[in-house]
Design goal:
The complex is a heterodimer of chains A (about 375) and B (about 230).
Chain A lengths: L7 H52 L14 E9 L2 E11 L2 E11 L4 E8 L6 H7 L2 E5 L3 E4 L3 E4 L23 E5 L4 E2 L4 E3 L2 E3 L1 H4 L5 E2 L2 E2 H7 L2 E7 L33 E11 L2 E9 L2 E4 L3 E8 L3 E3 L4 E8 L3 E4 L2 E4 L1 H10 L13 E2 L3
Parallel strand pairs in A: 5-8, 5-20, 6-9, 6-21, 7-10, 7-22, 8-11, 14-15, 15-16, 15-17, 16-18, 17-19, 18-20, 19-21, 20-22
Antiparallel strand pairs in A: 1-2, 2-3, 3-4, 4-23, 12-13
Chain B lengths: L7 H55 L5 E5 L2 E16 L4 E7 L8 E5 L4 E3 L1 E3 L14 E7 L8 E13 L2 E5 L6 E2 L11 E4 L5 E7 L9 E7 L6
Antiparallel strand pairs in B: 1-2, 2-3, 2-8, 3-7, 4-5, 4-8, 6-7, 8-9, 9-10, 11-12, 12-13
């Protein structure tokens, strides 16, 4: 049988061409879908990485050197690489109490990659504002009575017992401190000693009803290291290290070199508080009336949003601010800029980012 | 001389086989074409839903409850975030900002809100001489005359009033005095799609369905809580 020209080969080739074209189309579609999916995955991962690193930065302690940043300056808080993810978190200081945190993440290789961004604007305790606000040994928003042999003094050089100048953080320039800043003229007994000026200023003497150093009282309570109530006698608790979980451990104010010598807790009491003897340091905030009795000694900042009573033998190195009456009887209140500044610098109150409303900003 | 050739049976068999192969090929091409079209429709529908969800999520999740003006089944009126800036210089009447946002601030449409204090104000755009501010990558300089004084380092957020609509087969957005602009392809079955505010007003439930021209429309649901932009 002879071969004859026919259409079988042509038909077969046509069919094969159609099938191959369709296969190529499907392959191209599948490849396109895979590339789009990979790009979407990279984009989601980059966004998640940026947000995760930002969350870590916001939740962590503020680095010490953030305090030395001037407004407008930028510092890298964290940067690293994990597999195909690179990230950087930077902090830009806007003012003494506000920071912009920017987190940038990059996922992918040199040719195909995605970028993720996240931005937060948390607050920090405005130390400069608090230092300026508490530039007196005693501030009272109501009546002030210095009875018996009470000693109220204001000197920038005063240091708590056993403290050295080397412990004192640098502070911005401030005017000379006053002994008493009061809303109404104080009553001072003949035996009392006042070393420093007495000023009447009802606005400066009153406690800000909204916030301390830009942080609301509610947020202050939230970030407090210790919440106390009722009556207690604080005492440092340490073995080789400071036991910050121990009940009533308010740091060791009289032994700065001891394990608890560097522990300056933010102590918050919702309601009245009575401190019966003992020693402590840090920032003590009482949303009620405070009584220091039985020779209690405190170093740092004391704020009572109601009355304060400092009974015989009790003493404070730092600054005391009461919104209500201030009654001092045979007590000692000595302004110490070093104690105030160190309490602010060491306390977690100024070492944590505080998130207020709209702290997180959609990033573009 | 008789030449060897095809019989009529061979010819018919060949023709029948050819017809079968041709019909098979035609059916294959047709079904593949339909599959491709079907897949393309589904991908486009899913992409439309994804776009609608992404757009709504961006604005609604960034909004606080106080930014939501009203939610109806076919619309959501809100104060939508459009950008933010840091005050880098100011005097008694003007403030210069390092601005970053979706678009440049527009005094006729936008209001600004001072972060932290929640102080809301309007502003006028200023033609003042540009002050010197060190801009960072992606930032632009904007000079404003706000209603209240702004301090250096203050962070301000820019908002515009807008309404999202589910109408005429698409998700649309309109600002006061402007037409409704489509944000998606016209593939959304707006009669089967809706917004619904949570009972405790903490968020909004968005239900979207694509038009079912080829197959039953794809369904996309999202529950967006207000003020959930935080990571």
């Amino acid at each position: 049988m002879k071969n004859r020209p026919g259409m079988a080969l042509l038909l077969a080739l046509t069919v094969l061409l159609i099938v191959e074209a369709m296969t190529a189309c499907m392959l191209a579609l599948a490849t396109q879908t895979r590339l789009v999916s990979a790009a979407n995955t990279r984009s989601v991962r980059a966004s998640a990485a940026a947000r995760y690193e930002l969350r870590l930065a916001v939740g962590g302690a503020v680095p010490n050197d953030l305090d030395t940043m001037s407004a407008g300056s930028v510092q890298t808080l964290s940067a690293g690489t994990d597999g195909d993810v690179d990230w950087t978190v930077t902090a830009e200081r806007l003012s003494s109490g506000m920071i912009v945190l920017r987190s940038n993440a990059r996922v992918g290789g040199p040719s195909a990659f995605s970028l993720g961004r996240a931005v937060a604007v948390p607050r920090l305790l405005d130390r400069a504002a608090v230092l300026d606000e508490l530039n007196s040994a005693l501030l009272s928003g109501s009546s002030t009575v210095a009875a018996g042999a009470t000693d109220v003094s204001a000197s920038t050089a005063t240091l708590p017992p056993a403290w050295a100048d080397s412990l004192c953080p640098a502070t911005p320039p401030l005017p000379l401190p006053s002994a008493i800043m009061a809303a109404i003229p104080p009553l001072v007994s003949a035996g009392a000693s006042l070393n420093g000026g007495v000023f009447l200023d009802s606005i400066r003497a009153a406690i800000d009803s909204v916030a301390l150093g830009g942080i609301s009282w509610r947020d202050i309570e939230q970030i407090a290291d210790r919440r106390e109530s009722g009556s207690l006698t604080p005492a440092a608790a340490a073995d080789s290290i400071c036991n910050v979980a121990a009940t009533g451990n308010w740091g060791d104010a009289l032994h700065p070199d001891s394990p608890c010598g560097g522990y300056f807790p933010l102590i918050y009491s919702r309601g009245d508080l009575r401190v019966q003897g003992g020693t402590g340091q840090g920032i003590l905030i009482v949303d009620g009336a405070l009584t220091l009795a039985g020779g209690a000694a405190f170093v740092g900042i004391v704020i009572a949003r109601d009355a304060i009573s400092i009974e015989p033998g009790a003493s404070v190195y730092g600054a005391v601010h009461a919104d209500g009456n201030a009654l001092l009887d045979d007590a000692s209140v000595r302004y110490s800029r070093c104690a105030v500044a160190r309490a602010l610098a060491r306390s977690m109150a100024s070492r944590r980012f505080v998130l207020t409303r709209r702290s997180f900003i959609p990033a573009f | 001389m008789r030449r060897p050739g095809f019989t009529i049976v061979e010819l018919l068999t060949t023709l029948m086989l050819l017809a079968l192969v041709s019909v098979g090929c035609a059916l294959l091409v047709h079904s593949q074409g339909r599959l491709l079209h079907h897949q393309s429709e589904r991908v486009a529908g899913t992409e439309t839903l994804r776009t609608a969800r992404a757009v709504l999520h961006q604005d609604l999740a960034a909004a606080e409850r106080s930014d939501i003006r009203s939610i109806a089944s076919d619309s959501a009126a809100l104060r939508a975030f459009r950008g933010w800036g840091i005050v880098c210089a100011h005097n008694a009447t003007r403030a210069a900002l390092r601005y970053r946002g979706l678009r440049a601030p527009d005094a006729t449409k936008d209001s600004l809100l001072l972060i932290d204090t929640e102080l809301l104000m309007t502003f006028r755009q200023s033609g003042a001489t540009t002050p010197s501010c060190a801009l960072r990558s992606g930032e632009q300089l904007v000079v404003l005359e706000p209603d209240a004084a702004l301090q250096d380092g203050a962070v301000v957020l820019f908002f515009e009033s807008g309404i999202y609509h589910l109408s005429t087969d698409a998700l649309r957005y309109h600002r006061p005095g402007e037409n409704r602009q489509p944000l998606t392809d016209q593939r959304i079955d707006t009669r089967q799609s809706s917004f619904m505010m949570d009972a405790d007003t903490s968020g909004v439930r968005v239900q979207l369905r694509t038009l079912g021209n080829v197959t039953a429309g794809a369904l996309g649901e999202a529950h967006i809580r207000f003020g959930q932009h935080a990571p």
